[in-house]
């Protein structure tokens, strides 16, 4: 990320990569917490936590985190597993407050066996057909799996039905 004021509202509102930027160095972390438009919020890193984030993640069946061994898009690549990397030091997910205090539900999901770590050879998002098919089969079922022809109708809340 360019050091060109990544925390300005102009940059945060217009450059998607700036919204994913996080420097754990103490001098930068406070700027990140104060100014990040996306990542600090969705990771529940601010003092006021959004309980719905943790509840929603904890309800998942699986959350599959894939690290590409030669990733040059996600830098450092270990952050694809929520690892915190600060220069040469690395803090694995399960040692981070985000996990130990369960800010986003990953610990609860892990305890029920739903947190999955996968490593794939190659560059960012460069799956071979075999890798993609194996991953889809493992987490979504075989290609021949049948799903309901129609989604069930969900009841509309009174306020919605009155507005329609």
Describe what this molecule looks like in 3D.
- With 164 residues, the chain is an alpha+beta fold.
- It folds into 2 domains: 1-42, no CATH class; 51-142, no CATH class.
- The chain is built from 9 helices and 4 strands, in the order αααααβββααβαα.
- It has helices spanning 9-14, 16-19, 26-35, 39-42, 51-58, 97-100, 106-111, 129-140, 158-163, and strands at residues 63-68, 84-86, 89-91, 115-120.
- A two-stranded parallel ribbon has the order 1-4. Strands 2-3 form a two-stranded antiparallel ribbon.
- The protein is globular, with a radius of gyration of 19 Å.
Summarize the structure.
The chain is α+β, with helices and mostly antiparallel strands. The protein has helices at residues 9-14, 16-19, 26-35, 39-42, 51-58, 97-100, 106-111, 129-140, 158-163; strands at residues 63-68, 84-86, 89-91, 115-120.
Which characteristics define this entry?
164 residues, alpha+beta, 2 domains, two-stranded antiparallel ribbon, 9 helices, 37% helix, globular, thiolester hydrolase activity, hydrolase, AB_hydrolase_fold
């Amino acid at each position: 990320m360019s050091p060109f004021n990544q925390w300005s509202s102009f940059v945060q509102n217009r450059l998607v990569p700036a919204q994913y930027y996080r420097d754990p160095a103490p001098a930068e972390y406070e700027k990140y917490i104060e100014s990040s438009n996306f990542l600090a919020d969705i990771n529940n890193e601010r003092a006021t936590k959004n309980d719905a984030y943790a509840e929603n993640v904890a309800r998942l069946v699986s959350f599959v985190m894939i690290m590409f061994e030669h990733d040059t898009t996600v830098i450092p690549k270990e952050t694809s597993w929520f690892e915190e990397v600060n220069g040469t030091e690395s803090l694995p997910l399960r040692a981070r407050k985000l996990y130990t205090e369960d800010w986003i539900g990953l610990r609860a999901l892990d305890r029920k066996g739903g947190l999955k770590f996968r490593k794939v050879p190659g560059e960012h998002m460069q799956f071979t057909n075999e890798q993609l098919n194996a991953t889809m089969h493992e987490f979504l079922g075989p290609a021949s799996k049948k799903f309901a022809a129609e989604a069930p109708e969900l009841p509309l809340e009174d306020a919605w039905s009155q507005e329609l």
